[in-house]
Amino acid sequence: MNTALAAKNTLLELNQRLVEQYKAKHPIADIVKQRSAFIDNLLQNAWKKCHLDLYPMSLIAVGGYGRGELLPYSDVDLLFLIEQDEVCQNTQAKLSELITYLWDAGLEIGHSVRTVSQTIEQGKADITIATNLIEARFLCGNTPLFEELYQRIRQDDFWPSADFYNAKKEEQTLRHSKASAFDLEPNIKTCPGGLRDIQTIAWVAMRHFDAANLTELVEHDFLEPSELEELLECQNYLWEIRFALHISANRNENRLLFDLQRQVASLLGYEDATQLAVEQMMKRYYRTVRRIMELNQMLLQLFKRATLGHFKALEIQPINEQYQRRGYYIEVLDNDLFSKHPEEILRLFLYAVKNSNIQYIYAPTLRLLRKARRSLTTPLQDNPDCRKVFMDILKHPRGIVALSMMHKHGILSSYLPAWRRIEGQMQFDLFHAYTVDEHTHRLLLNIERFAQAEQKDEFPLGAVLINQLPKKGLLVLGAIFHDIAKGRGGDHSKLGATDAIDFCKLHGLNDHDGRLVAWLVENHLVMSVTAQRRDISDPDVVAEFADKVHDAIHLSYLYCLTVADICATNEKTWNNWKGSLLRDLYFSTQRVLARGKEKPIDEQARVEEVQAKAQKELLRRGIKDKDMQSLWCRFKPEYFLRHQPNQVAWHTEAIIKHDQNEPLVLMSKHTTRGGTELFVYSQDRPKLFATVMTVLDNKNINVHDANIMTSIDNYALDTFVILEQDGEPIVQLSRIQSIKKALEKALASENPKLPKFRKLARIMKPFNVPTQVSFLPSIRQHTSMMELIALDSPGLLAKVGDILYRCEITLLAAKITTIGERAEDFFILQTHDGRALTDAQQQHLSSSLHLALNQTC
């Protein structure tokens, strides 16, 4: 057939016409059906041109094509239904001719050739094949063959309704376990709340009721008209996104990848405003999938009741005159209860957590709850009776479990208007893996985890403090409000603190408790910033933090909120390194608060204490006192102030035993603050820091901390805390040896041939992080503190080191923090002659960094 090129051009014209209709806001359902109808016509014409209508064979559409739903690059799934087990050579040739034609026309074809018996046999063995067959649609060919298949599929022995329900529910559970509905790059087809969840409802309905589509469920009194309207509205929005994805990617793409999200948002008509266009699009997306998840849960539960009769056998236990427990479900007994008494909407959740056996809401009750939620004309918090029940929930030991259920079913936003504004609110970056509401929800669950015995190993300090807080409910309120003002513009911490004060007054909390909640909200980032981006070994840094904290109670509340917040940001953010930093800051601050206004520790006494403890250990190891004293007299007091005795002993022994003409590279077998300690001892030279950073970058190592110092006789004594990309310490011996050898080779050469920087990862390319250089007031005398914000591109620290060398600036210490695609790094600097940087030097360094990083990032 020589018309494949013409067909391909016609398909391209169709795509362009559909895109124009899409941009003109034609109904997406019509667009999806148009393409399917066009392919129907193309296939039917090709079937005749190949003379396949002369053979005992049927052409059947299956899968999404069987539903009559095709997007620009969707696969076209076909079943060739044959009469006999084998086809003759001539028939095979004709089929090959047709398939080749379709491929040449630009269609992605999935096909199988089977008899009716083979099809039924494979369908019985594979739930996916069975599902495709339920949606089978006749296109052309032998009609009796299709009718035979149609009847066989609907016989009781081909996936009985109950078996089919169980298989599809298990399939969905497995699919949901592999992804989150709130992924940064969600698959709109398979993620929880995606198109598959709507299709699962339809498939189960088709099997049980022999329904052709969702609309027929209304006729069966299974789906209410408003629920059908909601499902179709959600489906259409996901179709709109999927259509735009296909056009943007120029392929069959179902993942909302970062590098496509801006283009997809533009195609959907979103424009940047207070919120970015992509954030507006994703907000509606996340709200849509949450609605689908709730409908899916309710309808599948109703199907379970209809197909299995499971709920009739569940144990029923009265709670009171209005409620009862049905197995793991809570059920309301009065259909008008929620509409008559709005406070009962909240009391439902209070009773649910008072009975630990209850995990879910019974589907008929959930339907009533949905109706009541949608009929509300004012926020529930405006009702005094509702406020009383909410405070009872807050004070209950399992109150967070109730809040979690309320969030899942949209009641938290019905209660608190500000919560509604953050529902689905995403941030277009790589750090915040969840929407603002989902992040806060996970934060609350983390607070709940602190009190669980099995979490003591992961959160040892949190497990102790959570039970010592005077009022756990105040921490919960601080958590609810900590990010509630995001997306409004302005400082979300200050705006959220104002919201918290207003909430506490409305709910009758005393002034002290209200101020504590507002303080937690306004200062919820202070502890993490101090621990990760400041030098907490400096007593002045700790003293400044202690002034902000005021007392031990505030410190304990803030520690619990900080840890729970970090852990809820994304799955990779929390690690032992951060845990160790926060614990160290907590205990250092606790000592300062306990000591009150006492004089700070004498630095000379601290140096002598460290040396004495290290000396004791070294003598035990057989190191002569004269050797260590000879070495230590070359070290500045700062070295002993910034290292623990065990570190000093480790360094000292290795240096004494090492050839002084060669660089020394040590990597600890034991983790330091949750990371691996790297120590470099070498005659100092230009660009030493940049050289080390280049090697570590090439080895795909994350640097989190750096102490850069030199001895009196100009030897580098540089200590780094390094981690693998997944946040774990470097423990594999071969990995340690590889890093050490690479560093030793680079440091041994006067002009080392350094590896090229890695390429920027795909996921980073859509992001533009403007380089920002800020100089902060320095606590340490004769030093300058610089904060650098930039794209976390490969080789960033090496480039910074090179610029510092060119600007004749000495690096004393660095704290390296990566927040998604952003590097937020903190440096302590000094001129070569030991002074703080002048204004002119700061300006020159800032300009040099901007120029170098903007060119290379």
From TrEMBL:
* InterPro entries the UniProt entry points to: ACT-like_dom_sf, ACT_dom, HD/PDEase_dom, HD_domain, NT_sf, PII_UdlTrfase/GS_AdlTrfase, Polymerase_NTP_transf_dom, UTase/UR
**Does Transferase count among this protein's keywords?**
yes
Query: Which catalytic reaction applies to this protein?
Result: guanosine 3',5'-bis(diphosphate) + H2O = GDP + diphosphate + H(+); [protein-PII]-uridylyl-L-tyrosine + H2O = [protein-PII]-L-tyrosine + UMP + H(+); [protein-PII]-L-tyrosine + UTP = [protein-PII]-uridylyl-L-tyrosine + diphosphate
Segments carrying the region annotation (Uridylyltransferase) are 1-318
What SUPFAM superfamilies does the entry give? Answer: ACT-like, HD-domain/PDEase-like, Nucleotidyltransferase, Nucleotidyltransferase substrate binding subunit/domain
Give the EC number(s) under which this enzyme is classified. 2.7.7.59, 3.1.4.-
- A Pfam family hit: HD
- Tell me the domain of life: Bacteria
PROSITE patterns, sorted: ACT, HD
Q: What are the recorded GO MF terms, alphabetically?
A: [protein-PII] uridylyltransferase activity
Which cofactor names does the annotation list? Mg(2+)
Give every HD domain span. 436-552
List residues of the ACT domain: 677-757, 785-857
Q: How is its activity regulated?
A: Uridylyltransferase (UTase) activity is inhibited by glutamine, while glutamine activates uridylyl-removing (UR) activity.
Kindly state which keywords UniProt assigns to this record, in alphabetical order.
Hydrolase, Magnesium, Multifunctional enzyme, Nucleotidyltransferase, Repeat, Transferase
Q: What is known of its domains?
A: Has four distinct domains: an N-terminal nucleotidyltransferase (NT) domain responsible for UTase activity, a central HD domain that encodes UR activity, and two C-terminal ACT domains that seem to have a role in glutamine sensing.
Function noted in UniProt: Modifies, by uridylylation and deuridylylation, the PII regulatory proteins (GlnB and homologs), in response to the nitrogen status of the cell that GlnD senses through the glutamine level. Under low glutamine levels, catalyzes the conversion of the PII proteins and UTP to PII-UMP and PPi, while under higher glutamine levels, GlnD hydrolyzes PII-UMP to PII and UMP (deuridylylation). Thus, controls uridylylation state and activity of the PII proteins, and plays an important role in the regulation of nitrogen metabolism.
Q: Which family does it belong to?
A: Belongs to the GlnD family.
* Protein name listed in UniProt: Bifunctional uridylyltransferase/uridylyl-removing enzyme
Q: Which organism is it from?
A: Shewanella subflava
The organism that produces this protein has a lineage beginning with: Bacteria, Pseudomonadati, Pseudomonadota, Gammaproteobacteria, Alteromonadales
